[in-house]
Amino acid sequence: MSATTKIDGIGYPTDALDILKSKAVGDLFRAYVKSVYADENTEYLDLGARFDPSRHYAKFYKAGGAKELNLKGGLLEDARALGEAGNWRDKTAWKSIHAEALRTCKYQLESNFVVDFYKSKPFRAMHEKAVRKLIRIPPAMKKQVGVDDDEVLIDLVFLFMSGRKDLGNKAAKALVKKKKMTMGPSDLVAVLKKRFRF
């Protein structure tokens, strides 16, 4: 089972390969990595088994290549020696180089970009939409608190679920005042908390 991180109750992959395969965050992660000028790593991992040294050498291994990989000297030197000699048939050497390059790209993504990606504005915007879709306000709860507007209650629940307790308490106080509710802000929060466990 792959490693995941939970954010507001939703699990997201932390393994670079799983992130790239994810329908929820794969494309967003690629765009984020490209925005920080490290997309050679995602492009190379996307190649996977389709790597062909004769087709991909110039792009990833050749000095000044369009997506030159950031690899350890010895590995890069070995690849360049084979590539400059036009030796595309040494399958054992290329297989070893490719496997190590995949490991390096995966490591670089996981150690340098995954944590920051999950803090980025594009991810947070997508995540907020995902969380809000999961929040369902039961009709009985709307009746109990005296608020018929789902969106207002969803906004309030989301503030607490995302750890913004101070803002949530302020919003609850403002809602109670605006709707002239009979229950106090702390009672409103208690009802929501019981249902949504934030």
State the total count of DSSP E strands.
2
Give unreliable regions as ranges: none
Let me know the largest β-sheet: 2 strands, antiparallel
SSE-based structural type? mainly alpha
Rg, rounded, reads 25 Å
Mean pLDDT: 94
User: How are strands sequenced across the largest beta sheet?
Assistant: 1-2
* Count of runs of 4 or more consecutive helical residues: 12
Shape: rod-shaped
What order do the helices and strands follow? EEHHHHHHHHHHHH
Helix coverage percent of residues? 55-70%
**Strand-residue fraction?**
under 5%
C-alpha termini separation: 27 Å
What is shown here, in short?
With 198 residues, this protein is mostly helical.
Task: Describe what you observe in this structure.
The protein is mostly helical and 198 residues long. It is built from 12 helices and 2 strands, in the order ββαααααααααααα. The protein has a two-stranded antiparallel ribbon with strand order 1-2. Strand 1 and strand 2 form a beta hairpin. Helix 2 crosses helix 3 and helix 3 packs across helix 6. The longest helix is centred in the middle third of the chain and has 22 residues. The chain is rod-shaped and about 80 Å long. The two termini are 27 Å apart.
List the helices and strands and how they pair.
Layout: E1 4-7, E2 10-13, H1 16-21, H2 26-35, H3 39-47, H4 53-60, H5 73-84, H6 91-112, H7 114-117, H8 121-134, H9 139-145, H10 150-161, H11 165-179, H12 185-196
Antiparallel strand pairs: 1-2
Helix pairs in contact: 2-3, 3-6, 5-6, 10-11, 11-12
Supply the key terms.
single chain; 198 residues; two-stranded antiparallel sheet
